[in-house]
Amino acid sequence: MQTAIAGPAVIDFAGEPKESSAETDSQIQKRFSFGTKAETLSALQPLLKNMEIPELHYFTVAEWLVDSSAILFEIGRRFERKSVVFRSSAQNEDGGTDSQAGAFTSCLDIDSGDPKAVSVAIKKVIDSFENNLEDQVLVMPMLNDVVMSGVIMTHELDTGAPYYVLNYDSESGKTDTITAGIGMNKTVMVHRDFASAHVDSPRVTELLDLARELEGLCDRGTPLDIEFAKTRDGRLHLLQARRITIQKNWNRRIARHVGEVLFQAEQFITHHSRPKPHMVGARTILGKMPDWNPAEIIGTHPKPLAVSLYRQLITDSVWQEARASMGYHPVPHTPLMITLGGQPYIDVRASFNSFLPAKLSQIIRKKLVDAWLNQLEMHPEYHDKVEFEVAQTIIDFNFEDNYLKRYRNALNHDEYLEYRYELAQLTVANLSLHPEASLPTALRQIEQLVVIQSLRNGASTSYAPLEKLPVLLDECRDFGTRPFSIIARHAFIAETILRSAVSCKALSESRLDEFKRSLHTITSDFTNDYYTSLRNSDDREKFILKYGHLRPGTYDITSPRYDQRDDLFADARNGKSKQVNTLFQLNACENELLASLFEASGLGAIAPAELIEYARQSITNRERAKFIFTRHLSDALELIAHWGETQGLDRDALAHLNLQNYLDELISPVLKDPEIYYKHVIEHRRCEMENVKGIRLGYLIRNPGDLYVVPLHRSAPNFVTGQRIEGQPLQLDNQTQGNGELEGYIICIENADPGFDWIFTRGIAGLVSKFGGANSHMTIRCAEMGLPAAIGVGEQTFERIVAAERVELDGGAHIIRPIYG
């Protein structure tokens, strides 16, 4: 029988204890090697300085079969009626090439003084083995008063990128929530080239010290998987240390490139964050989900064509031109979106500059932008809600309270009064429904694109397809995305004021839900027309003509359009068309309370009924405007696809070229073999994307240190309806066919794109999205339908939800979580 020997002795695997005091660190490292789980922990026990290994005892299956009574006695004597854990320590577990993680049984919280319970637990562990008499059972005490537990990987698992991955639970008080995949956890990724100044968390520093100590005891460069726990007395316990076995699948080139890319990114951020002559703000912050939210719209790792189209149509200039037309401060010649390692980020300083009234003095603008940046830095959890929790872009009914709570000392009294006055003037002007006001003007502009589209459908053209591309894009920008951007900002204004009315008790949550259910959007038409086409096959052609341009990935050329799918009508449920209540009206009490709030806020010229009509027009037409301009965008993608066919390039290849490649073809054509030339360019782009694949960047980059220490923020979801449901999750992507069974499932999608509207015809129980905000398409769509949803749950929560067998979604309690057991 093999047991651990406490004290200063070192156990080598020949079995003889040797004094360690005279050995050098290099000798210890040279002599240490991995064995089974139990043997490894036993060998490490006397070597560790920054942590300890609980008392342990282990024995083989053969020893148990020969004399189980002696083992039961020894366990009872050694652990003295303590609660213990029985774990597997098999010969084919935790090896150099195969970990067998989770393949064998563990038994927790067993009374060591109860021979029957101990015997049952041991048999359960042994029964999970593969008939090897040399397999071992490991006994360790249950740890009490656990304040933190988790797992550390010394390399990123997918690619082998050089990151420490710290995954820990500091809430449940259990030791197995990470390895079992349950409970709420926090994840921090730290690049191996980090500087101590980059780490501002004592907890993270402590875990990094643990990992580095273990690395120092192993062969240089051995990737480790470390399981640990910390107890309330401050002691750190090592529960397991094994080699990561999937390293044979890693791309070594990725690991080599990460450090170089991060160095270049650090130089860029340092330079980009300096003061700019055309903007206020001492620095900037970069985020994937603020403002125009590229993570939701084009994804966190988009291909070059999607990025370049989004820049052309939105983030190069349209974004600020739209706001300037509404009375906000112009930010000309300032791209809103940048990319780092192929990942898109919003320049938050530019965004914040565009949220201030144009007539506000520069000194006040500077103070406010710096205050907003400080607020976001202190509260990174607001990274996807900056317009509701950070920047005050209009006067709402909570303006004064929010300002005092967030920015009491940002402005002096006179500066505050100027700020409030200018913002009130801007708010009143934008709430107006006068024919020449901002919202009605934008609505007329978007209708011009409808006229252009109707004329084009009936006209014949003689010029080559690719020559239509610049025309389509110019029309899409001038008559599509620019007015859409204006309408979308009005929808944010409406949502902000309605939210503040609820918080001030002028409206109830249920009445706000009732209002949203009364809205009749283009997606209401979609559902009604779809069910009509199911009942009458002659109407299917009309349906495709109207909705055929939609695709789940609006900017993704590889995502099939509705008119390219033969599964659109497969397995659909012949449901009822939505009956829309178009007569939502405020009652007398609500009207009186809202009128008082408008008066108290200095917005007395606005009648409550006008607010409801303004909200109805802005929210419903935001969806209609998106539907209209995406037809032009979708047609532009099809022009590119058609051209690609003539060049022998498939859609995935075309996605790796950018917009400028296609426009250059019209004025500076490739004179050598185009197919060979473009395939070379595409291969180069694919190689570039592969080289940066291992880079892990957070949703928010506040300073260069955030490139090296990357916390995965847990987003606060936007819940729709107060209903509670349980169901089985089902993940869909842009390529998912519609002939699968969706009825009763809680559907999980990455982004809230209109092209997914077909799922609402399949009888789904609820919806979860990784990305998306309070005013995103799917939020509005689910509110309109009264469908329970959690929009924008964030990466960690989303991955846990899609991996679960069942999910609880409770909008009233603001809960979205897996159900276990």
Task: Give a brief rundown of this model.
By secondary structure, this protein is of the alpha+beta class.
Mean pLDDT: 86
The proportion of residues in beta strands is 5-15%
Per DSSP, the total helix count is: 28
CATH fold field value of the domain at 715-819: Glucose Oxidase, domain 1
Q: Shape from CA axes?
A: globular
Low-pLDDT runs of 5+ residues are: 1-23, 177-183, 459-463
Please give the CATH class of the domain at 715-819: Alpha Beta
Q: State the fourth-level CATH superfamily of the domain at 715-819.
A: Phosphohistidine domain
Share in helix? 40-55%
Strand segment count = 24
Strand arrangement, major sheet:
11-10-7-8-9-16
Helices and strands in order, then pairings?
Layout: E1 9-11, E2 17-19, H1 25-31, H2 37-44, E3 57-60, H3 61-66, H4 68-79, E4 83-89, E5 107-111, H5 115-127, E6 136-141, E7 146-153, E8 163-169, H6 177-180, E9 186-191, H7 202-217, E10 224-231, E11 236-243, H8 252-272, E12 286-287, H9 294-297, H10 304-315, H11 318-325, E13 337-340, E14 343-347, H12 348-353, H13 362-378, H14 386-389, H15 399-407, H16 413-431, H17 438-457, H18 469-503, H19 509-517, H20 522-535, H21 540-547, H22 588-600, H23 608-646, H24 651-655, H25 659-667, H26 674-691, E15 700-701, E16 709-711, E17 718-720, E18 724-727, E19 729-731, E20 746-749, E21 766-769, H27 777-785, E22 789-791, H28 795-803, E23 806-810, E24 815-819
Parallel strand pairs: 19-20, 20-21, 21-22
Antiparallel strand pairs: 1-2, 3-6, 4-5, 4-6, 7-8, 7-10, 8-9, 9-16, 10-11, 12-14, 12-15, 13-14, 17-22, 18-23, 23-24
Helix pairs in contact: 11-18, 17-18, 17-23, 18-23, 20-21
